[in-house]
Design brief:
18% strand; 254 residues; Rossmann fold; nine-stranded mixed beta sheet; binds magnesium ion; binds adenosine-5'-diphosphate; alpha/beta
């Protein structure tokens, strides 16, 4: 069977359109192995939103740190944040204290659990959260992800959840995602599972992956309705020129 051409437009064009399409309460799932660029994609998506709580899973995630949001080490945020929201001015935070030791992790998890509940009460936030299942476990809501996402939707809270492996994505998270962003992979089991998750034929997903996986930082984006997948490639971030070392890859391209 022929593989449809599903190459999409440029990333910037996509973001322009997506900003209008992505309504409050619509969820997104981002699935890719570590180092494939999940946090990088997340940061560009959060740019489109006005009220953001980006949960920092590590208490010091480097890529997330690039978003430049101030860190919220406790919940609730200061009253001035709500004043700004009342004035419709942007309010964006990295949620969770910066931690240096493993022993501090419970404190991080506690703040994030409070923030998640708080965000639902407040309405209007976009919440970004790594490994939703694990976060829900810590909140004692392991079996309640579907309820969590439904109540978020009805409150206009968009949840962007990030997962490392398709096998870790709870059914509710992909069924309720209005968009799924898949980092490309060559692993056959992964591809089959992804096809199942997004409800597309395996040959189509495999074709997309074969054709484009060699490109850096390509993503397969599958909207829930209609299920019309497209592949987009993120522009390369400007590389840091190593001091006194190799010429950066960018300069050798004309
Ligand atoms: N479009 C891109 N261009 C250049 N580098 C990228 C791009 N996307 C991701 N990277 C780099 O890859 C590394 C891992 O990205 P990250 O977003 O932290 O991945 P993940 O969250 O999946 O672990 C980072 O050093 C990041 O700068
Ligand atoms: Mg990350």
């Amino acid at each position: 069977m022929p593989v449809p051409d599903i190459r999409g437009k440029s990333w910037d064009t996509f973001l322009d359109e997506f900003k209008k399409e992505w309504k409050p309460g619509q969820h997104i799932a981002i699935i890719a192995p570590t180092g494939q660029g999940k946090s990088t994609v997340l940061v560009t998506l959060l740019d489109l939103r006005t009220y953001v709580l980006a949960f920092d899973p590590k208490g010091g995630d480097e890529t997330l740190g690039k978003c430049g949001f101030p860190r919220l080490g406790h919940w609730p945020p200061p009253g001035k944040a709500y004043d700004r929201m009342a004035d419709k001015k942007p309010v964006k935070y990295l949620v969770g204290p910066k931690i240096n030791r493993l022993a501090e992790r419970p404190a991080l998890a506690a703040v994030q659990a409070q923030a998640l509940e708080g965000a639902f009460d407040d309405r209007g936030w976009t919440v970004a959260i790594d490994e939703l299942q694990i976060a829900a476990d810590k909140m004692g809501q392991a079996d309640a992800i579907d309820n969590l996402l439904i109540s978020a939707r009805t409150r206009g809270v968009s949840v962007v959840s990030l997962f490392q492996r398709p096998a870790d994505v709870p059914r509710a998270a992909y069924q309720m995602a209005s968009w799924i962003f898949l980092g490309l992979t060559l692993d056959v089991d992964t591809i089959n599972r992804l096809a199942e998750i997004v409800g597309r034929p395996k040959y189509e997903i495999r074709g997309a992956v074969n054709g484009l996986a060699k490109q850096d930082y390509s993503w397969l984006i599958v909207p829930n309705n209609p299920r019309r997948p497209m592949v987009l490639t993120l522009p390369r971030e400007p590389e840091k020129v190593p001091t006194g070392g190799n010429v950066s890859r960018g300069t050798s391209r004309v």
